[in-house]
């Protein structure tokens, strides 16, 4: 593994101390487990770790909110118990406009999680790989670290349990799973068949359309409605920063201070590295319409299957709050 030495996170705020001393060290690499629950609270449930893969350039409150939405959804609608949550920033080899160096992205994610959360962690493994790592490989890495190295979790009676690893993603990312050439068919089988995904609804993406071609993995797909619609994105934050506009309350203050201190995002960045996945042959099933209104797609969220055209009306607040 290639692991560069990131500059230590800097945060000069006197009003909001940034817990710099408690930030996990990034080099040499050690899988972070300091907030991973070792003992399950409810033995009748399946222990679950949520993993969000992304650019996080920069990390915003919406990235962090995804996890909170997921935990609520898991508690109210599933038989899982969340025992940990990880952000996994993509490596510098991923070609995407505005992708800042992994050093800075990992530092910002660490500041955000350590400052604002009691359970989220940042795993820098993917970020510091010399080559781009596909999401299927990243999930395997988490499974290895949590179940083989860490040893899974135990119940209060001392019984050892294997932790289920699942991807946490916005519906825009899941929509790309139906685009030819973006995801290898065997990777989709691995990610959705073996692991599974929690999908957070995102404005601008038709969730039903995004999951149509994924119906065969419906038992492993959970849809999470956004009850308070909020479309903060890293792209918009970068645009605001370039224009000298305030980004306060869109992301943790500590991350804003880090950006200001390092003079980040003042210019538009060209994509770095090379394209992420090698183009793969289109998934032969990707464009099959497997009955868009099937009752078989996520049993857990069937009422979210047919969003009206107007996204702001797609999940009436009252209906959403009574979903469980
Ligand atoms: N507002 C949001 N609602 C739901 N999901 C989101 C939101 N913002 C980000 N995500 C999800 O977070 C994950 C990481 O996303 P990423 O780092 O690419 O952020 P982004 O804001 O989409 O970035 P960019 O604007 O640079 O494309 C993805 O699964 C993405 O779908
Ligand atoms: N084939 C793949 O494994 C594949 C394809 C597209 C995106 N991704 C991942 O999705 C995440 C978010 O990507 P975007 O920022 O491009 O939406 C990244 O972590 C990226 O690695 C993986």
Q: Secondary-structure blueprint of this entry?
A:
Layout: E1 46-54, H1 61-77, E2 80-89, H2 102-116, E3 120-122, H3 135-149, E4 153-154, E5 160-161, E6 164-170, H4 171-175, H5 185-195, E7 197-200, H6 207-212, E8 221-224, H7 234-242, H8 253-262, H9 317-321
Parallel strand pairs: 1-2, 1-6, 2-3, 6-7, 7-8
Antiparallel strand pairs: 4-5
Helix pairs in contact: 2-8
Bound molecules: adenosine-5'-triphosphate and beta-nicotinamide ribose monophosphate.
Task: Provide a brief overview of the structure.
With 324 residues, this protein is of the alpha/beta class. It has helices at 61-77, 102-116, 135-149, 171-175, 185-195, 207-212, 234-242, 253-262, 317-321, and strands at residues 46-54, 80-89, 120-122, 153-154, 160-161, 164-170, 197-200, 221-224.
Description:
29% of the residues lie in helices and 13% in strands. The chain is α/β, with parallel strands linked by helices. The protein has a domain at 46-231: Rossmann fold (3-Layer(aba) Sandwich). The strands form two sheets. The chain has a six-stranded parallel beta sheet with strand order 3-2-1-6-7-8, with helices on both faces. Strands 4-5 form a two-stranded antiparallel ribbon. Strand 7, helix 6 and strand 8 (221-224) form a beta-alpha-beta unit. It binds adenosine-5'-triphosphate and beta-nicotinamide ribose monophosphate. Beta-nicotinamide ribose monophosphate (NMN) is lined by residues 53-55, 90, 94, 96, 134-136, 173, 176, 182-183, 187, 276-277.
């Amino acid at each position: 593994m290639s692991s560069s030495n990131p500059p230590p996170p800097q945060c000069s705020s006197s009003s909001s101390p940034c817990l710099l001393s408690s930030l996990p060290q990034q080099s040499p690499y050690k899988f972070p487990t300091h907030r991973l629950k070792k003992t399950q609270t409810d033995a009748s449930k399946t222990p679950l770790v949520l993993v969000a893969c992304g650019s996080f350039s920069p990390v915003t409150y919406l990235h962090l909110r995804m996890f909170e939405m997921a935990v609520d959804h898991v508690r109210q609608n599933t038989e899982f118990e969340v025992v940990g949550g990880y952000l996994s920033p993509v490596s510098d080899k991923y070609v995407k406009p505005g992708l800042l160096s992994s050093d800075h992205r990992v530092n910002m994610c660490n500041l955000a999680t350590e400052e604002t959360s009691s359970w989220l962690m940042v795993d820098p493994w993917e970020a510091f790989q010399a080559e781009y790592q596909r999401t299927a490989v990243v999930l395997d890495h988490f499974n290895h670290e949590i179940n083989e190295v860490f040893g899974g979790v135990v119940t209060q009676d001392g019984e050892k349990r294997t932790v289920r690893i699942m991807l946490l993603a916005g519906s825009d990312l899941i929509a790309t799973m139906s685009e030819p050439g973006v995801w290898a068919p065997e990777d989709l089988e691995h990610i959705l068949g073996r692991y599974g995904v929690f999908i957070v609804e995102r404005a601008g993406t038709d969730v039903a359309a995004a999951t149509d071609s994924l119906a065969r993995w419906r038992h492993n797909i959970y849809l999470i409605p956004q009850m308070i619609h909020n479309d903060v994105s890293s792209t918009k934050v970068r645009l605001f920063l370039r224009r000298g506009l305030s980004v306060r309350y869109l992301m943790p203050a500590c991350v804003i201070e880090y950006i200001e201190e390092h003079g980040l995002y003042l210019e538009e960045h060209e994509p770095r590295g090379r394209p992420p996945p090698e183009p793969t042959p289109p998934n032969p099933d990707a464009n099959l319409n497997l009955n868009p209104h099937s009752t078989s797609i996520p049993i857990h969220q069937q009422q979210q299957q047919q969003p009206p055209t107007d996204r702001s009306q797609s999940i009436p607040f009252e209906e959403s709050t009574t979903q469980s």
